[in-house]
C-alpha cells in the first residue's frame, strides 16, 4: 500500500505551498543549501547504494536527512542540485553523488522564527513573531517521480596530492 501512495505523496509534496502563503520568498541562487529529506523508498534506495543501516525500531518509515547545494538556476523555474557523500566500505573509499533537476516550486521555504524571550509575544496575539530567514527544504519519497535525478556510487581508487 505504501508503494502505491509514495508517488502520490511525492506529487502532493511537490505541489504543496509554503508555510505562509502570502509571504514573498527570495529567489533561489547558486550555492544555496537545501535541506533534503529522503523518505520511505527513496531513503531505502539511498541507504542501499551507500550501504547504510536503517535499523530503527521507532519508525517503520525510514527518513534520511542531508544537505544539497543548488548548482544552477534556470529562469527561476528549474533548479539543479548536487549532493556528495564520501564513505569507506570494507577498506575501500567510495563517493556517492546525487544530482538532479527539479521545478523550483519543489523547494519549500520554511521560515526560521525568532523565538528568543525578548522577541516572543507574551501578552497578546496581535504581535507577530519575527521571521529571521528561511530554510530551503526538498522532500523526496520516490526517485521515479523525478526522472532527472541520478544517484551514483563511485569507487575512489587514487587520491592526488595537490
The gyration radius over C-alpha positions equals 19 Å
Helicity level: 10-25%
Major beta-sheet overview: 7 strands, mixed
C-alpha end-to-end distance: 52 Å
Shape call? globular
Domains counted in the coordinates: how many? 1
Order of helices and strands: HEHEEEEEE
Mean pLDDT: 77
Task: Please tally the β strands and state the result.
Answer: 7
Estimate what percentage of residues fall within beta strands. Answer: 35-45%
List low-confidence stretches.
Answer: 1-21
Structural class: mainly beta
Number of helices: 2
Topology:
Elements: H1 2-15, E1 33-39, H2 41-50, E2 63-74, E3 78-89, E4 92-103, E5 108-113, E6 131-140, E7 150-156
Parallel strand pairs: 1-6
Antiparallel strand pairs: 1-2, 2-3, 3-4, 4-7, 5-6
Amino acid at each position: 500500500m505504501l508503494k502505491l501512495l509514495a508517488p502520490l505523496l511525492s506529487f502532493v509534496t511537490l505541489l504543496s505551498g509554503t508555510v505562509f502563503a502570502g509571504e514573498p520568498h527570495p529567489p533561489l541562487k547558486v550555492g544555496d543549501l537545501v535541506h533534503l529529506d529522503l523518505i520511505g523508498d527513496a531513503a531505502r534506495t539511498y541507504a542501499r547504494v551507500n550501504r547504510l543501516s536503517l535499523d530503527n525500531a521507532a519508525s517503520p518509515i525510514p527518513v534520511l536527512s542531508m544537505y544539497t547545494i543548488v548548482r544552477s538556476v534556470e529562469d527561476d523555474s528549474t533548479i539543479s542540485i548536487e549532493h556528495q557523500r564520501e564513505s569507506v566500505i570494507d577498506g575501500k573509499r567510495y563517493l556517492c553523488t546525487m544530482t538532479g533537476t527539479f521545478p523550483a516550486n519543489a523547494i519549500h521555504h520554511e521560515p526560521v522564527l525568532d523565538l528568543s524571550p525578548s522577541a516572543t509575544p507574551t501578552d497578546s496575539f496581535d504581535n507577530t513573531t519575527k521571521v529571521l530567514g528561511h530554510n530551503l527544504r526538498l522532500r523526496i519519497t520516490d526517485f521515479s517521480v523525478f526522472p532527472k535525478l541520478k544517484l551514483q556510487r563511485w569507487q575512489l581508487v587514487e587520491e592526488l596530492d595537490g
